[in-house]
Amino acid sequence: THRRRCSLKRLSLLQCLPQYLTSGEKTSCQHQGELRELRQNLRRLQILCNSAEKELRYERGRSLDLKQHNSLLQEENIKIKIELKQAQEKLLDNARLHSSLTAEWKHCQQKVKELELEGLRQTQSLKSQQGLQEKLAREKSKAAEAQEKILDLQQKLDHGRQVCLSDVCILRKKQLEEEIKEAKSIEARLQQQCQEEQQRRILLDQDINELQTQVRALQDKEEQQEAVNSQQQEALRKQLERERRKCEEYVKSNQELSEKLSNLQQEKEALWQEHGRFLEQLGDHVRNYKDKHHCHKAKLQKVKDRLTHELEIRNKRIKELEDETGKLQQKIEMEKVFQGQIMAQNDILLLEKRKLLEQVTDQEELICSSKCTISAFQSKASLLDKENQQLQENCLRLMQQIGLLEQIIRSIQIRREEETVITDNAAFEILKKILPLQNSSFSGTGFVLSAENLQETELHKWEGAAAIPKSPEPLSRSQDSESGYINVTSLKETHNTQGDQKPEL
């Protein structure tokens, strides 16, 4: 029974196919033209995207060059700071050397002062020695006078011995001898004092000579140290002048580098501001696109709900017709001969259905891929942090072109909807024309003609599929799926109308 019902449905579909194929071919040609236009627009978009990517790469390379230049400037600044630190350390070392040399010079001056004091002391001792020498000379003169007196006394004694040999002379002689002894003792003492004074004089002369040699050595050392200090001071002065010049040069270079860095920071701030503006504009565009996408989804959902409602109504009608066809099972026993052919056609239709399902799945995959591409574009948009004003203008131009393309796509969708409405109206007109047909359509010749027409339609379909490229765009697949869906619904409606005619007859 089920097979008979299917055979009746397929026969009605075969009768309606030839009239419907002409309108389908027209719509397919129109869709192909629209597809070509869309492909051209997509190619233009790809070219614009490629140019934008090239500009992005150029700007990124330029930003990398600027970063490298900044890093080099920072390295030079670090090197200059290191050299400044080294120069400061050298200055500190030189200052320490200068301070140590000044301390040594002061120490030498103190030694010279001490030696001068010792020289003064030695001069004082020399003066005292000279006074002692004068005293010695005086004592010597006194001793000479005493010796002269002694000689005079001896002569007087001899003369007295010769003149008088009396007791008075003896007493006088004793007195003279005592005086001579006293004079000899005084002379011995004076000689000892002279020897002691001579020894002291020799020691003082030796000390004076040693002090003079020390003074000369210290004077030589002082002169050498003064010469060395003068040379070192001149060398230090020259080094300080050189380092001061280097420091001035370093300061000038640092000022230039700081000015360059300030300019670069200002440029960076300006670029950040432009980047923020661009991100704000891009966020606005993305929001508008999302709002439009949500509106489009809502419209598609409404259309889908309406079509599902219509399908439910048609399915109810089909059930009613199936109930009515159950009453007509007795009349369809003679049509078992064509059952094999109808089964083959059923297999072909199942294959077509599978193909349509595959196309639907491919379309869903393409939608997913389009979502992925949208996410990729969003990620690329997040990477557009370092773009310039030129890129911003190009992006604005691209957004304007995308808006034009969206308008074109909307116009194409509106045309499709209009064409679907037109095709639905054409299908209803075909059904109206088919309604006054008689039951003679169920004859053998009608079945043969319908089978031949079905084969021709299949050949046309295969030729149209061969004409379409192997990798079609997502829009072309959606158009094929929509056209197939419209064909099936129109065929179901024709079958329902024929089922209504048969019970009336």
TrEMBL record:
Keywords, comma-separated and alphabetical: Coiled coil
Coiled-coil annotated residue ranges, if any: 35-90, 129-274, 304-331, 374-408
Pfam families: DUF4686
Chain intervals for the UniProt region annotation (Disordered): 465-505
Compositionally biased residues, Polar residues: 476-505
PANTHER family hit by this protein: COILED-COIL DOMAIN-CONTAINING PROTEIN 30
Protein name: Coiled-coil domain-containing protein 30
Species for this entry: Mus musculus
